[in-house]
Design goal:
The chain is α+β, with helices and mostly antiparallel strands. The chain contains two helices and five strands. The strands form two sheets. A three-stranded antiparallel beta sheet has the order 1-2-3. A hairpin with a 2-residue loop joins β1 and β2. The radius of gyration is 12 Å and the shape is globular.
């Protein structure tokens, strides 16, 4: 997988998506049980996206499945997003 996302960066990104003690989906903004949170590539790997801190966010299973290989703009703006 192309990119340089570290576990520490992923933890920092996850902290950004916590609201009132819950993880929330970057797309639908619904609460997500921790076990159902997905590491979502904003620009899919299949479309040239990279596995980097600026291209991943948290999504729920439903949004992850629905998004598939599309590029969606998160409703919760990722603090490291530069290219979407």
């Amino acid at each position: 997988m192309a990119g340089d996302l570290t576990p520490e960066q992923w933890e920092q990104i996850a902290q950004f998506y916590i609201r009132d003690g819950w993880l929330v989906c970057a797309y639908c903004t619904q609460r997500i049980p921790g076990s159902q949170a997905c590491q979502e590539h904003i620009i899919p790997l299949s479309k040239g996206g990279k596995h980097t801190a600026s291209n991943v966010c948290i999504s729920c299973l439903a949004c992850n499945d629905q998004k598939g290989t599309q590029t969606w703009r998160p409703k919760l703006w990722h603090p490291l997003m530069r290219h979407v």
